[in-house]
Design brief:
N-terminal domain of TfIIb; 7 helices; 5 strands; five-stranded antiparallel beta sheet; DNA-binding; 11% strand; 310 residues; alpha+beta; single chain; 43% helix
DNA sequence: CGATTTTGACCTGCGC
DNA sequence: GCGCAGGTCAAAATCG
């Protein structure tokens, strides 16, 4: 996927909405000194405003450049990752989306582009090889197996994995993704000392989405969130009904993760997971930058106001 | 007081 | 058939 296809870096941050409306210095004949003073005051504040706007404009430019750089490095990373993947597991390319069954051949699993299943080195000993395979199998099943009687629709439920960097001291096992979740279970699993938390979307039973969150055994600073299924509703911050309706609301909620998540779901399973990992990391680092989020919020609200005017 | 979380019990599928 | 492990349920506890 081309990074720039979902991130329009030509975004007009709209931080200069008044530039076209600045009063031209037409000298009119002012009859009284009172009026003259008033005009001088206005002129002064206008020049102050202009200065401020210039400053904001240059900041805007810097942000745009920053964004372009981020997209560039995203594309580089993505290409690099694809190259690595095609070199390491060419057979993977030919397989379809795996069915969630315990008997699933581990090699067919496509959901772990990074780390989790590659922490142990390959060993030529058949016994250990088997053991290694078994461990991989277990790890993968950990995130995929579903032993409940499943309906057809559930069987087709999309599974995606998201890695979220967190503080190692944070034991809450919460991943902020814009949706509201209700925890319904927690379990300690065999090959990971940290427990796994089970969440259902708060809109359940109408929304079938579930997620599992567990700290990565290999990198405790990472939370591994596994999503099953797709939301059949908007996020809690969105207006009800039509996703495209902006409804003239002046509130802008930055939900980069969610938006990208939805985009990624349109691709196949493997790409989906890869993209989400990268997107998640990008989004989390961007949303941590308060300046960026503020500027983006201003830009979006500016756009909305502009649209509502036209 | 309703919503949410916790946690032990129970269910289910799989391998032996 | 049995044991194991992951997933879910539901009563109790906690929170806002």
């Amino acid at each position: 996927m081309d990074g720039s296809s979902f991130l329009d870096i030509s975004l007009d941050l709209n931080t200069n909405p008044f530039s076209a409306k600045l009063p031209k210095k037409e000298v009119s004949v002012l009859a009284s000194t009172h009026l003259k003073r008033k005009w001088l005051e206005q002129d002064e504040s206008a020049s102050e405003l202009r200065e401020e706007l210039n400053r904001v404009n240059s900041e805007n430019k810097k942000l745009t450049e920053m964004l372009a750089r981020v997209c560039e490095s995203y594309n580089e990373l993505h290409n690099h990752l694809e190259k690595l993947q095609s070199r390491q597991s060419p057979e993977i390319e030919q397989t379809d989306i795996p069915i969630k069954k315990r008997k699933q051949d581990p090699d067919e699993f496509l959901g772990f582009p990074i780390g989790l299943s590659s922490g142990k080195t390959e060993n030529s000993s058949s016994n250990e090889d088997h053991h290694h395979h078994h461990q991989q199998h277990e790890q993968k099943n950990q995130l995929l197996s579903c032993k409940r009687p499943v309906t057809d629709s559930f069987n087709k439920a999309k599974v995606s994995t998201v890695y979220v960097p967190t503080e190692t001291s944070d034991t809450s096992l919460t991943v902020k993704d814009g949706f509201q979740w209700r925890k319904y279970g927690q379990k300690v699993t065999r090959d990971n000392p940290s427990p796994r938390a089970y969440f259902r979307c708060s809109f359940a039973p109408s929304c079938p989405v579930k997620k599992k969150v567990q700290r990565s055994a290999e990198d405790p600073s990472l939370l591994v969130a596994t999503y099953e299924g797709t939301h059949n509703h908007l996020g809690p911050n969105a207006s009800e009904g039509d996703a495209t309706s902006q409804g003239g609301s002046s509130t802008v909620t930055l939900d980069l993760v969610n938006g990208c998540h939805r985009l990624a779901l349109e691709k196949n399973e493997r790409d989906n997971t890869m993209q989400e990992v990268l997107i998640q990391q990008m989004a989390s680092s961007l949303t941590k930058d308060s300046k960026f989020t503020a500027a983006l919020a201003a830009a979006i609200s500016g756009r909305l106001m502009e649209q509502s005017r036209t």
